[in-house]
Specification:
single chain, 144 residues, mainly beta, Immunoglobulin-like, six-stranded mixed sheet, five-stranded antiparallel sheet
Length: 144
Amino acid sequence: MSVALASLAAPAAWGDAAGEPVPSAAADAEGVVATFIGFRQLGAGRTLVYVELSKEVEPTLSVQGKTLEYTFPGTRVTLRNNRRPLLARHFESVVHSAQLVPQGKDLKLVIQLRQETKPASRTVRQARGATFEVELAFPEQPAP
């Protein structure tokens, strides 16, 4: 019997000090904090990579072949576990991996793809911040 997982996430409690406070938008007046990164299969070959943020921020996108880099200005990740890569290579997904990578005062979401494809992204406001979502799908194959 085989069980297929539909999503991956990096829970803040894994691998970090117990009792470490989770920053909130009110507590962090100096910038934005990425509080969670996740991966979800949507069906029909579509995948969602998402980042929960303490405040809304618009990233910029850089594409280099099969690598997508979203740069979140003035954003940081405070929990070590949220910097570990989400490995999706064992799922039927165009995504190979996704990782939050600090770079100076900014934060990058680096998504490694199996094939080049066009991402669709959006920022969704939430009661306690925002969620940045990137939807990806395998490229359409030309009809024979």
